[in-house]
Task: structure prediction
Amino acid sequence: MIGTGPLTRAEVVAVARHGVEVRLSEAAVSALAASRARVDALAAQADGIYGVSTGFGALASRSIPAGERARLQRSLIRSHAAGNGALVEPEVVRGLMLLRIATLAKGYSGVHPATAQAYVDLLNSGLIPVVHEYGSLGCSGDLAPLAHCALVLIGEGEVLDAGRRRPAAEALAARGLTPVVLAEKEGLALINGTDGMLAQLVLALADLESLLDAADLAAALSVEGQLATDKVFAADLMALRPQVGQAASAANLRHLLAGSPIVASHRVGDGVVQDAYSLRCSPQVHGSLRDAVDFATTIAERELAAAIDNPSVLDDGRVSSHGNFHGAPLAHVLDFLAIGIADVASISERRTDRFLDAHRNRGLPPFLADDPGIDSGLMIAQYTQAGITSRLKQLAAPASVDSIPSSAMQEDHVSMGWNAARKLRQAVDGLARVLAIEILTAARGIDLRSPLQPGRATGAAIAVLREQVDGPGPDRFLAPDIEAAYQLLTSGALVAAAYAVIEEGNPA
Result:
């Protein structure tokens, strides 16, 4: 149900990723009608009002007569649908469509209720407007991506229909949907928002919530497999530095390692004074990304409560221009998350590398190979992981520090938030692949410690992995093992198995 209040992050994910349908509340329809009545009253006035009876951007000085305004709105959508490149993922397109509807429903954009309903019908139809990778500067919102969606609404452009690309007019007719004829203000209201950036942020946050627990699981497996200590994760040590994310990650590590026979086997007299930073400092690094996620969540939830448009139709009848469409608040946290992801991937790669070096892995065979020299073991899995990690470091370079002026210098500072969001999607996927390779490696290392056994929680995760990935042995085609570990990680199966043991309350 889309009302006049904010959507939740869970609702965005449900609609964007899982195909849940939507409808407008009665309050939203009333707000839309009241807002449109104000625009109709202003449209009858002789004075030029931006977005209602003038051109746009650097062309706003031209007053447009009433008879030409429908053409003005149509021309706006056509000209702004200038995206290029690869197609944007359907879940992102559905997310940005939902968020645009949610802004319209708040009653500050001045569109007809029928126009908003037509957008709802398009979203519910399952048709996916063709939106391209390139086109948004993240200021004046995500103009080009949203314009491609609006183009479909007026019966033009292209859609994906069950994965097949086809003309929008043809697909709409097949669904019994009628193209919309846009009135004053409506074209601008359909494209002036941060919806693409926000949709991608919300989806990334949903993925990171699971990946952060997976990072702690990977570290716990590495602690066991490399005969490291869990003492450094003690609650009283964490209290000396009251960082929230660090404390949460350390608590996860304590629970995951509780009762581990491997950890207990060398607790006294193993001659190791300190573990390497990549093991000892896991909660500090993982926790910092947790804190970044918490901050980004705050920004996302504020944006979900916002009505992003320009100009806005206010309750007192004014139509006022402003800068609320600027993507800086989102762009900054999108970049912030990419930086944290790169660092978590970096420490994961270092933990993995230690397993493969016979000088540092405390008695395991080189590269965890079955017959070193004949077999290469997991040598090249680490290469793959290192390549991804290097790519994540490149993606961590912030997009939001860049700005390229546009619209004849009228839009002379832009956020580049769309680019930041596109980078973040790649980074989230890369982190999952890096962690999957660490888990694959650590599980083999633990198996090679037999007869020593892991703790119940980590052992449960290994058991799920072993359902699809065989344990140590001669070299085999490795790519399917890595992909299987990745799928188990991203599905949540590995984390669920481990944390189910913790939730039993007695992991020992």
Notes: Strands lie at 84-87, 128-129, 132-134, 158-161, 164-167, 312-313, 319-320. The domain at 9-193 is CATH 1.10.275.10 (Fumarase C; Chain B, domain 1). The mean pLDDT is 94.
